[in-house]
Protein: ABC transporter domain-containing protein
Amino acid sequence: MALAVQGLKKSFGAVRAVDGIDFEARPGRIFGLLGANGAGKTTTLRMILGLVAPDAGKIRWQGRPLDEKTRREIGYLPEERGLDEQAKVEEVLVYLGTLKGLSPREARRRAAAWLERFGLGAARRRKVKTLSKGNQQKVQFIAAVLHDPALVIFDEPFSGFDPVNVDLIREEMQNLKAQGKTILLSSHRMDQVEALVDELILLRRGRIVRRGTVAALRAAVPVIKYVLEWF
Ligand code: ATP
Structure:
């Protein structure tokens, strides 16, 4: 159930957004992609999702290239967020769930359980726009995991989240990890992810400049300096 990326490359004109990236993310582990804005994190994730075509490289999931169907099954919390504000909370989740292959009935059942868990049971029939920003963020998280994906991609999941929700999302990520999901997590903030990630790559200008566990990176003082310099 591993995701393997080999020699991935993508340029936009003269910009080498991703310039030869290799890594392997495993089930029951949280794999971090760290780097400053523009380091190539989103482009890498969008290539895995099939939203950007690579110039070179291979992406394999469970030993096989990702096809359209498997790609649709990936759970994805995009960096650019936004829900249909005029729609009702439950409607949005059921609609997105059916796009991911759930029956409307099953999507409704799961949405209800998740909303209850996040203290939003009573908000089911309210329009998205009447919810606080924090509650909209919770709905967006639910949308990413509703169909119980084996591979989940979180692109800068903490940016714009208030501290209470950051803790909630962290806890939910740990739960997903305990369930054996393969999780990719991108961030430009080491401090927000170091307690979560099992392994990480540091990206700079589309290249991997360091890789390993947080403990290994921490053990090397010059690396910490390096991290601080670039993050
Ligand atoms: P951020 O958190 O700001 O999204 P990132 O690490 O995810 O940063 P990318 O979004 O992957 O970085 O961008 C890497 C580089 O590629 C940047 O220089 C960016 O301007 C450029 N880039 C990304 N997408 C495009 C595009 N569609 N067209 C042109 N340039 C792009």
Notes: The chain has a mean pLDDT of 90. The first strand starts at residue 3 and ends at 12. The chain is about 40% helix and 25% strand. The first helix runs from residue 41 to 48.
